[in-house]
Structures are given as C-alpha cells and as structure tokens.
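Re-run with default settings, no changes from the original entry. Doing this only to confirm the output is reproducible before filing.
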Amino acid sequence: MTPRPSGMTVRRDAGIYGYERALRRVGLAPVAGVDEAGRGACAGPLVAAAVVLGGTGASVIPGLADSKLLTPKARERCYEQILRRAVAWSAVIVRADECDALGMHVANIEALRRALARLEVHPRYVLTDGFPVDGLGAPGLAMWKGDRVAGCIAAASVIAKVTRDDIMTSMHDEYPDYAFAVHKGYVTREHQQALGTHGPCPQHRRRFVNVRRAGGWVLDPAAAEDLDPALPHQLAGGHP
C-alpha cells in the first residue's frame, strides 16, 4: 500500500467525493473503491465489489453513504443509480465453502482482488476500506471508515451489500428454518436458536465456533474464526 500521493490535499469539508477529486487533480484517475459485505456472517457467501465513479456531476450518486447507514429502500435507490452512473463496477461472490477453505481474512483479500480485476476500466489508484490490500495492480490507500468518507468505497459497499442481501433473501426458500432473509446470516439470537434446533446447513461456515459447536464438530482453535458468538455482546447485533 502506497503513501498518499505528494501534493494531494483534501479539505475536511470536501464531502464524500473529496478524495477522488484530489486524486484526479494529481493525475491519478480513474480511481476505484473496493469493499465487501458478509465477512462477519457465519452463513452465506462473502461478496466484494469494486466501483469507478466519474468526475462529472452526472456521476454523483444522490443520497450515497456507507451502506450500513442506509435503509434497505435507500440502498436499493443508490444501487440502481450506481449501475446507471458508474464508469465501471463489478461484484464477485465467494461461497461459504471457499471461505472455509481459505479462512476469512484470505478470502476477503482474494475477493477484493478479484472484484478489482473484473473492472472493465483499469484504475490508476485504489481506495480500500479499513486495511491495506496488496496485489491490486495499482497503488492504493487504506482509509479508516473509508465507506463513510470516499464515494467510490461507499458505492462499492452498496453494491456488495445489496448483492449479498438478495442472495441471502433468495436462500430463505431453500433453507426456511434459518430465517436468512431476516438476519442475512449474521449471528443473532434468532439465528443461534435455529442453529441449536436444526444444526448447520450447507451454507454455514464451518470455521466459525458457533457453527462447529452446533454441528457437534471438534473445535480446532487454529482454524476457528472470530470469538465465541455465544457471548452476549456478540449476540446483540450483527449487520443484517
């Protein structure tokens, strides 16, 4: 991950498109943002997305923000606008069994790389949310809470979230006992109760401690993902 380009200055009041404008001023356009959805879920796929937004008013996405801060209807509206207005976008799906095979961190990095590689426009600079990602084929910058401060990352978060939510909602028809349409595979009390009653289904990630416990499988600390989801503070939420 490269340092911020020399000469790039972003005002605090620059808004959600400020970083991309600054990068364009120093000749680093097009700029791509990448983000994922579903990393913390114990069921369903991981989805990563990459988005390149243009530099004109026609590329502004009305109401764009971090997908987690938007209502489902607002996310859908932003999603449709991103599809219409983005210069390029892509989304990739990493199945639950592949997440198990790779481990969540490796699966996450690989998904972000794949999403970027599938863009029809090759970016000259990449903005990532939270942590640096190497092997992207372009210099980049990791941004703390990037989906709240960079438009292209926020757009990628919306694409990833809406794509994954649609998958989890459609999965409900095949696995109605787990209410995937409600909690989207994250660890909630309702989901944990269903695991206890019915055991894991093929869409559950077997690296997660709560899934292994519900399936009666031997717990391997070296392969376990996350803390014990039975702890009260973890059962309080998730990100459905």
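Confidence is low (pLDDT under 50) at residues 227-238. The beta strands are 31-37, 46-52, 88-94, 125-129, 140-143.
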